[in-house]
């Protein structure tokens, strides 16, 4: 999405659900200037907090990372997002400890595993799991307060149930194949494909994202059908044909 679209989506979410839910806008960027501008706009349209990723691709030094995170935290409440698999750079524990002193620091969305989450929690840092397949154990064994989830876009009620006070290992086990399928290609490829197959979004992909292969769609159709009653708004699951998907590069 363009930044204009991004802020419009946050505004729409606030207008539709802001009186019922805390809206956390993903306004991070690898450019501090862009992150600050987007975060200011997000708060201007009513979001309650931001999600801030560390600078990706270009990376930076530890000092640069601290300056970046302090700058975005100065804008308002924020969760900091650590996903080295996408950014190419880990946010080390000493940086987390330092930004943890900031009054606007809400905690970490942590994707490096439950041992790391447990370590953060032991030092008083709130953590949300960033890995759906580990989220149940993160919540019930490692002290995470919840999950920021891909799968919740498909079966929000089931993911909410996984995060309740009482562990549900049977439900967690039943969702393992769905978790794996939704990450068979980099997110959001499988998610967008799944929502199109359920008739919940138009089957339009902006390049470089493309839909899953037919073989993967066939596998996914079986998994989605098994949980169809838990997919809000879904009245049926279709495998779909390749020609039904639209790929957009320029517009």
In brief:
This protein is an alpha/beta fold. The protein contains eleven helices and eight strands. The relative contact order is 0.07.
Topology:
Elements lengths: L2 H15 L6 E3 L5 H13 L4 E5 L8 H12 L4 E5 L1 H4 L5 H7 L5 E6 L3 H9 L4 E3 L2 H10 L4 E2 L8 H7 L6 H14 L6 H9 L6 E3 L7 H13 L19 E3 L3
Parallel strand pairs: 1-2, 2-3, 3-4, 4-5, 5-6, 7-8
Helix pairs in contact: 9-11
Secondary-structure-based class equals alpha/beta
pLDDT averaged residue by residue? 97
Q: Order of SSEs, N→C? A: HEHEHEHHEHEHEHHHEHE
The biggest sheet, with number of strands, parallel, antiparallel or mixed sense and barrel status, is:
6 strands, parallel
Distance between the termini: 11 Å
Strand order of the largest sheet: 1-2-3-4-5-6
Low-confidence segments, ≥5 residues, pLDDT <50? Answer: none
As a percent range, the share of helical residues equals 40-55%
Strands, count: 8
- What integer value in Å does the Rg equal? 19 Å
InterPro entries: Aldolase_TIM, DapA-like, Schiff_base-form_aldolases_AS
GO molecular function: 4-hydroxy-tetrahydrodipicolinate synthase activity
Protein name: 4-hydroxy-tetrahydrodipicolinate synthase, chloroplastic
Family: Belongs to the DapA family.
Please explain how this structure is put together.
The chain is an alpha/beta fold and 251 residues long. Helices cover 45% and strands 12% of the residues. The protein contains 11 helices and 8 strands. A 6-stranded parallel sheet has the order 1-2-3-4-5-6. A two-stranded parallel sheet has the order 7-8. The chain is globular, with a radius of gyration of 19 Å.
């Amino acid at each position: 999405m363009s930044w204009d679209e991004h802020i419009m989506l946050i505004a729409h979410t606030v207008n539709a659900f802001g009186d019922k839910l805390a809206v956390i806008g993903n306004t991070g960027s690898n450019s501090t200037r862009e992150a600050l501008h987007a975060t200011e706009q997000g708060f201007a349209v009513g979001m309650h907090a931001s999600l801030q990723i560390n600078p990706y691709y270009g990376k930076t030094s530890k000092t640069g990372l601290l300056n970046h995170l302090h700058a975005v935290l100065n804008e308002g409440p924020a969760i900091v997002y650590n996903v080295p698999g996408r950014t190419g750079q880990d946010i080390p524990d000493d940086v987390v400890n330092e930004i943890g002193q900031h009054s606007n620091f809400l905690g970490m969305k942590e994707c490096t595993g439950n041992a790391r989450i447990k370590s953060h929690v032991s030092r008083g840092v709130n953590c949300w799991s960033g890995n759906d397949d580990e989220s149940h154990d993160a919540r019930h064994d490692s002290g995470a307060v919840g999950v920021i989830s891909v799968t919740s876009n498909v079966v929000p009620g089931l993911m909410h149930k996984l995060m309740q006070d009482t562990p549900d290992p049977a439900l967690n086990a039943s969702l393992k194949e769905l978790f794996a399928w939704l990450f068979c290609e980099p997110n959001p490829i499988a998610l967008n494909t799944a929502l199109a197959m359920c008739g919940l979004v138009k089957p339009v992909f902006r390049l470089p994202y493309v839909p899953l292969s037919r073989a993967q769609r066939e596998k996914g159709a079986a998994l989605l059908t098994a949980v169809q009653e838990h997919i809000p708004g879904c009245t049926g699951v279709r495998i779909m044909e390749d020609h039904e998907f639209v790929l957009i590069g320029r517009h």
